[in-house]
Amino acid sequence: MGSATSVNGSTFSVDRGWRLAAIGLLAVRFVQGWIYWGGGTRRFIYGPQKLDAWGGGHWMAYKFQTAMPGALLGTEHLVSFLLQHFVLLYVGVIVFSLVELFAGFMLITGLLTRIAALTTIGLSFVLMLLFGWQGATCIDEWTMAASNFAMGVTLLLVGGGAYSLDNWLLAKKPGLAQKGWFRWMGGSLPLPLSDQAYKKFALVLFWIAVAFIVGTYSYYRGSVVTPFHGGPVSPSKHHWSLSNGRLQGDGTVTFHAYVDAGTPEAPSNVLHVTLVDPRNGSVVEEWDSAKLAALPKTALKNDYDYQKIHIGKYGITGPVGSKATIILPPAASDLKLPAGTYTLKLNSVNGSVWTIPLQR
């Protein structure tokens, strides 16, 4: 890595080229660092309510719960497990936030730049798996995670050691230049690899980045080898998955609901529910907005303590990621339903209809 290169009649040492590259990457290192530093400081300094699990506000658990519908590689099960085990959840949120804080600080100051860059690659990977599906217009979370992943790979390879604490440490202790751990973890010097080995390492990381970024883009939106689509989980249109339906002879209906699509920015609202006899299309029972809004709190049994399906002013309200067992009392007294198959229909404020068959 110490050879000279001639360009347009001028000879540059690789060390000088490395220094110029580091200066050129200064903005990348700072911005990558600030993104994660900002995430950490918002929670620990400027918006501590995000870590306040006891203050009654929407702390970070609510954000993680909204990730569940579209989370990849089974991570929705991990999130669900954490949401039901408070101590593990809170420790996880604190650790994640601390990692963001320190990785961001290390990149901004250029302290052990490469290990900090590697950490941000890991953070970007996790954030892509959890939140990459969100963003109705520009898949915002995918864009953020993809950009951070690529910037992390670049800083891992090149170091970006200009105007850094790594350079200051090297100036104070020149012997660090001979330490393999410093060459791999710091950003001041080239990696301790031959030109050919460095090229192979860089190309491996490049193809990993291409596969990860293009693959997730294709999964979320198509437009690579398939037509554009809105994603397997819509980030804009709410959807309720209904299961475990039970119908009693007196007309009591019990079912489980999961708001498994839509924007986290606004909840979904169910204003009208009907029980229909599919044999003749007649409405057997009906719960209008007034009846739904009058349901007692005991009619809802939520799976989690954070994002909750709840009784709203005009019906049943469900934020993204919420799950609950819902009990609808008989819509009329002295109702005796004959045996057979019925269909329960939930109608939302924007005209969506979700159904589940019920057996009596």
From TrEMBL:
Pfam families: DoxA, DoxD. It comes from the Bacteria. Keywords: Membrane, Transmembrane, Transmembrane helix. Residues 26-184 form the TQO small subunit DoxD domain. The keyword Transmembrane applies. Residues 222-355 form the Thiosulphate:quinone oxidoreductase small subunit DoxA domain. The chain crosses the membrane at residues 20-37, 87-109, 115-133, 145-165, 201-220. This is Quinol oxidase. It comes from Acidithiobacillus ferrooxidans (Thiobacillus ferrooxidans).
